[in-house]
Amino acid sequence: MHQHIRENLEDYLKGENPAEFHAHLGECAECTEELQSLVAQSQLLRSLKSAPDVEPRAGFYARVIERIESRPASIWSVFLDRKFGFRLAVASAALVALLGTYLVTSEPSGPEYSSAPAVVLTDTPQAAQVSALENDPRQQQQRDAVLVDLASYHQ
Description:
Helices cover 64% and strands 0% of the residues. By secondary structure, it is mainly α. Among the domains are: 3-47, no CATH class; 125-155.
């Protein structure tokens, strides 16, 4: 679209018709085509304009309020009920007591977890086993090697 048409376009769309504007449109097909497109868009936008005094039908506000009030309560409103809150607190306390009891009773505290050395049961009596360890030099060397390993162990 040419500069002269752009400058006077607003006046043309308002309904004013300058003579040189029409003369240029008679000569230039490109400007005429673009102007017809703008006029069609302008008419379309005017058709979308609402009437100045549009009022809702009678009873509209009453129907809206009724619809809001008849709406089902939210799931979160259940927690605001005093009876439900009390029952939930009692159930939670019972669950905590039950889990605490389970943890206390299942804690390993038997003789298998004590810090005392373990007793090895064998077919031979214990006194004979101790005397056999003291008399056998190979057993004594192994015992000393284990003690050295334990004494020199660093974490």
